[in-house]
Specification:
By secondary structure, the protein is an alpha+beta fold. It contains six helices and six strands.
Length: 151
């Protein structure tokens, strides 16, 4: 029994965390294909995706392509440093957008062109980061595989 416990203490935690982190990163990337959060709820379709086609949060794929994993012996993290990432993860109510380079913002609403100096918008939360039930099962399986290799 002591040998088995000592074996657990000697597991390569850096490799385990790297494997788990990469698995969670892949799961996160898959969410951009399915348009579902870690809670398995479908994201609210963006206005752009509804009018122009395509998928929500994937106009240029910049956000999706910025997802990275980082790990060491103490743990792992999956995330992004994209400026707009938190806005999409958590949403933002009553955000004001102002014209900067021109006198007004110009956009279409219902087929009509509108010009405004500023507009208030609501961006719904579309969580893409987090652990789903499937992720938790995958993590459990990864750890069990590493333990089995030690036997």
């Amino acid at each position: 029994m002591l040998r088995k416990i000592r074996g657990f203490a000697e597991l390569d935690k850096k490799k385990i965390n790297a494997a788990i982190g990469e698995g969670v990163r892949e799961s996160t990337l898959e969410r951009f294909k399915t348009s579902k959060g870690p809670d398995d709820k479908t994201w609210k379709t963006s206005i752009r995706a509804a009018t122009e086609g395509g998928r929500t949060l994937v106009q240029t794929a910049q956000l999706r392509n910025s997802i990275r994993s980082k790990s060491d012996a103490s743990g792992f993290a999956v995330g992004t440093n994209a400026k707009h990432a938190a806005t999409h993860q958590f949403g933002e109510q009553g955000r004001t957008i102002r014209a900067r380079r021109a006198k007004t913002l110009r956009f279409q609403v219902g087929g009509q062109w509108v010009s405004k100096k500023k507009v208030k918008i609501n961006i719904p939360a579309r969580p893409y980061l987090g652990l789903s039930d499937d992720d938790m099962q995958e993590i459990k399986g990864t750890v069990e595989d590493f333990i089995a290799r030690e036997d």
